[in-house]
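Archive record
______________

***
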Amino acid sequence: MTQTIAPRVRPRVLPGVRTLVLPGVRTLVLLLLAATGLLLAGAGPVSAHAALTGSDPQQGAVVDKAPTQVSLTFSEKVALSDDSLRVLDPKGKRIDRGDPANLSGTTYAVKLHSGLPDGTYTVTYQVVSEDSHPVAGAYTFSIGAPSQTTVSVSDQTAGGGIVGVLYGFGRYVSYAGFLVMVGGAAFVLACWQRGSGVRALQRLVVSGWTALTAATLGLLLLRGSYTGTGKVGDIFDLELLGQVLQTKTGAALVSRLLLLAAAALFIAVLFGAYDKREDDEKRDLTFGLAIGGTVVAAGLAASWAMSEHASTGLQAGIAMPVDVIHLLAVADWLGGLAALLVALYRAPADTPVNGTAVRRFSRHAFGSVLALIATGIYQSWRQLGSWSAFTGTRYGQLLLVKIGLVVLLVGIAWISRRWTGRLAEHVDGAVEDEVVEGEAVEGETGEGEAVEGETGEGEAVEGDKEHAAARGGTSNSATATASASSATSVSPSPSSSSSSSSSSSAVGGKKGDAAKGGGSQRAAQLARQQAAIDTARQKQRRDADPNRFGLRRSVLAEAGVAVVLLAVTTMLTSTEPGRTEEEAKAATAASSAEASSTGALTLDMSFDTGGQDGKGVVRIDLDPARVGGNEMHVYVQRPNGRAFDIPEVKVAFTLESQDIGPLPVAPDHISTGHWSASGVQIPMAGEWKIAVTVRTSDIDQTTVSKNAQIG
């Protein structure tokens, strides 16, 4: 029996059909993904959400008598551990005793040993703010007179290093997983119920669940090292893990894992029992799944709201439910957008996403955008507090970038909405045409006409012959049998001829049955081949629709912008709110003013040398700021308030009204970011110009100045 092999179907590309993704769109997506990577890579350590607003002794103070304790005041409540507050003598030895304690409100203190000698002491702190972010810093004070110190605090950071990068990436993945899981499930239930049987959508939602679960477990393991030592080796420290489970953040992460177990059951029902129901039977189950899914999604959103920005500060009782609504609206919009993108590109030809589903999603997205605007305005007011914070704080600057991306996203969504309106007029008609054509082709096939002409070059004639042979109940093997029988009948022996004839008849009967079986197999192969051709033709015709093609491009552009928007949002949640930053600045200014009222002079001057690590703030403390000898301290800090060393710093005093000066002063280096000079002579009272020259490298240098009344 001759074996027949079904030819591979290579669908013919219809004239005028363009590729699904234009090179320009690919380039746009790649650029957006690259920008996201740069944003995440450049995020750096998490900014402090609780700022140090006061201390006793104050930073740089020189006290006559050794204090019995050191107290620190923060802008909000913080969580302490045994080593959160440390005080080190000039040789780096700890001189604090006991555990830190909360004196009152947001003030915390640690006791000191008695009989401390004169010299410069270093205070270091590492705490966790009420919104779950680590805060670290250091400063110095002196007893009797400043001295040299061996303590270095330049590397005093919180949430940095490899652990900080991993923790930030885990936060991004958890947000992305939440959006995809919740938004994808909402898209299936509310917009396209037939999508519950589409494998691509099932994989999307399950991938979101997997990403969120894996990220949550990772964050739980990283948390102890992230808020503590920052060492990779401490990630699997069970003692640290036990401490994390007792914190607010640890409880939130565990609650999220429990809710994800419920979400797994929801997904199993959505893509299992729900998909197998008939459309009429799905109504009641749809309502139940919608209620249950909303409860689980709200609980997952609350695991963020109850442990981060919304849980502390102004109007926390209102801010937390508003934050939940904000997260659900983001998931419904951006997660649904991802589901729509997958449906447009990966849905099978026999289950295309129709215009009705796209219109439903458009309405859902519009409602989500309105909710985002309302909740976003409230959150912006709560976190910023003033218009100046938009440009004067890092939080405000990131928020402006986020607003710009949202506006861009809404603009692209408006374009998608126009394509949706056009698609609605064509999708239903196209589907009807495909059905009619499929019936016509099926009728032609029933009459025995093989539709092989489009399957390939050189295969049509052979296919027609084989199809005809299968239809007539014969085969090449049957023909061969008949030829063999004729050849045998020429034998001169009658007996031999008779025997041979009967034998040939028997063999021919068996092979005739085999030929019938082979013909039915070939018919099945041809039927499958025809079905593949019809499916390919339907898919090509669907893809050739310019309205669907335009909708695909605009939705793909939306998804690319959404990826960058999510990265900016992740950075925003890790940045000190503008209101807190401005309150900390005001408290520092008030402390400086208080010091000035007692005779001391404090000046803060920002500088930028233009090189690497060229930005910072230099502070001048002059005590008692009178005619005669004065004690001067110079502090250099990064923009985030952490002290750091520079190669050189010089100070000059000029009284321009009397043409005196400049009088140069070269202070001595005391500790990290701290210089001091004693016996600075001010010859007469007046408004002096104090100029500070800062050099951050061999070639990067700048001079900043301020005027102040002395004497």
Remarks:
- The CA atoms of residues 48 and 71 lie 19 Å apart.
- Residues 394-446 form the longest helix (53 residues).
- Residues 1-48, 427-508 have pLDDT under 50 and may be disordered.
- DSSP finds 16 helices and 18 strands in the chain.
